[in-house]
Amino acid sequence: MIDAAVVACYLIITFSVSAMSARFFKKKHDFVSEDGYFLAGRRMPAWLNGVSLAATALNSNVGPTYCGLAVVIGLSVCWYYMSLFNFSLLFAAFVFAAKWRQIGVSTGPEMAKLRYAGNNARVIRTYGSASMILLVMVPYIGVGLLGVHVVISPIFNYESRIITLVIVLPALLFYLWIAGYAGVVVADFMHTVVIVLAGAALMVSVLVRFGSPMALTENIQRVHSENSPAILSLFPSWGNEVFNPLMIVIFLLIYSLGAGGNIALDGQRILSCKTAKEATKVGIWALGALFLMLMAITLPTIGSLIDHPEFFSASPSQRELIYAIMLNDYLPVGILGIALAAICASAMSSVDSILSYSSQLIVNDLVHPFKKDLTEKQGIFIGRISMFVIMALSVIIVFWSSSLFGTVLVVAGLLAPAALHGWGQWWWWRPNVYSWATAIIGGPIVFLSVGFFLKKIPWWQLQLDAGPAMVQQLDALKIVISMAITTVLWVLVALLTKPEDMEVLKDFYRKAKPNGFWGPVRKAVEADGDNVEISKYVILSGLLAVIPVAAWINMLVLGLSALYVGSYIKASLLLIAAVPTALIAKRIYTWHVERLGAE
User: Fold this and answer.
1) Residue 280: how many CB atoms within 10 A of its CB?
2) CA dist., res. 51 & res. 440, Å (int)
3) Helices (H), strands (E): how many in the chain?
4) Using H for helix, E for strand and C for coil, what is the string for 556-587?
5) Is 213 in contact with 564 (CB distance < 8 Å)?
6) Angle formed by the axes of helices 433-440 and 419-427, to 10°?
7) Residue 372, class by beta-carbon neighbours within 10 Å (0-12 exposed, 13-18 middle, 19+ buried)?
8) Which value, in Å, is the radius of gyration of the alpha carbons in the chain?
9) Domain map of the chain by residue range?
10) 428 phi and psi, to 5 degrees?
11) Which stretches in the chain have pLDDT values below 70?
């Protein structure tokens, strides 16, 4: 009862504060304008948007998923989330954020009306919005709700997923109906604080349980005498079936290639910033806040490996239960309530953001283009109603999926093959509606076809028979293969078909000032007497800025991880090295932003 009361109090406080805070960020007219409801009047600071983006990435499935991985990987699980988010967040922020902010769109798919001609733009915008909702937003809401169930149901001793939905859904929908995007961002900040506090309490409880960081290491060495070096290593072992150095490269490719070329939830954070320069900072704040929360969630699993050594070799669906077991084992009454509040927070922070953006897509890209006389008040109402439809579709995922990690890979497999077309439309003048169709529609077909044909290969089938962990590794590799094939196909199509109308491309060039291969368009613009000044090598300077910023944040993660298990020399070296790296990162970032011309 005490824990339930803590959760209830947290939800009430969060709703009240976020509703009032929304009024702080909005002006009077924002309450009846779509820009005000969906983008908070474009006046949000970068730090708050970054923290919100981090909280959104931290769906409620993250506890079971990441702890389920940590319990079979060990301390080096940090490389999993570093491979997912390092490049994808920073490169998107440093190279594309200012561009998106400057072209004046409200959503990612709206860019189509600037980059493509006439009916081509309408098709791309409509399909892009609808597919994003159905293939991305709906599954991720479902995965988030499933994550809540995986954690809460064992603690309160029930099995029905319907009970979890009855507890969570009404509060989520009511809260978002009232708050709008400004309320979402403020609530996300509160969620982040609670998640960090709950993780810190769990970390301290584990250390108290075993006595000290050194004692934690000694117990791991005692219980896992053979596997302790791999568990305590800061770098993943080659022999690990679930995650190894090859998987770092694979996940880096899957989640980084194409980053920033199209935008979704990150787009709301970028487009709602005060200025283009502020938009470039969102990725830095997001990465720092995200890694802080993920460390707080995953590091305590070292203790669970001592008390439950059998989980080191558990199946994917079994190991995802370790988070709930860990909460029960180490947190007393009251503190457990804070942890449960954190789970609700992670669900709310992702689901409310997804619902907010999905409803914006419906209004901005599916309704407005076909109903020109739609008032902004009507648009807000349609957006609110659409949230109920999206949530209903997401409930199907809750009952269909059995493994959180596996579900994420399926979604990534359907989307990742087309990712590089996002870069292509910014960096090359040739991509057109046909190359877009090849990538966006053909990509999932390629992914499914590759899976079908690979199963015909004896070696591949032999690996599939090795167990669930190997199946998930091969699924990730299958995504990379599909990305390569799809990219070759859409590039060939772009070369063999006519580009978009030159007048449209010239207007886009003047407005977006894109880098890359735009020679014929640039010459056509110059022939019209226009001189568009574009900084050269911005893509390379953006990449150069990513490296020291990522290195600095990663050193902090690795240093704090080493500190938690008593590796004091390693921790000291890493944390000391992070200081000059941070100074170098700041100088290079400042230089790059000045070259961008972001104001």
Assistant:
1) 28
2) 30
3) 30, 0
4) HHHHHHHHHCCCHHHHHHHHHHHHHHHHHHHH
5) yes
6) 160
7) exposed
8) 24
9) 62-153+183-238+257-402, 406-499
10) -145, 135
11) 1, 19, 21-32, 59-61, 147, 150-152, 154-156, 397-398, 400-414, 469, 598-599
| Type and span of the H or E element at 451 | helix 442-454
Structure tokens at 189: 């900040």
**What does the pLDDT read at residue 271?**
95
Which of the listed CATH numbers 3.40.50.880, 3.40.50.2020, 1.10.630.10, 1.20.1730.10 matches domain 62-153+183-238+257-402?
1.20.1730.10
Residue 193: CB atoms within 10 A of its CB come to 14
Helix (H) or strand (E) holding 436: helix 433-440
Cα(119)–Cα(160) distance, rounded to whole angstroms?
47
For residue range 412-471, list pLDDT tens digits in order.
666 777 889 999 999 999 999 999 999 998 998 998 899 889 988 998 888 877 777 677
- Buried-state track 213-250, b at ≥16 Cβ within 10 A, e below 16: beebbbbbeebbeebbebbbebebbeebebbbeebbeb
DSSP state of 97: I
| Alpha-carbon gap, residue 259 to 427, rounded angstroms | 13
Furthest CA-CA distance within the chain: 76
Neighbours of 449 (CB within 10 A): 13
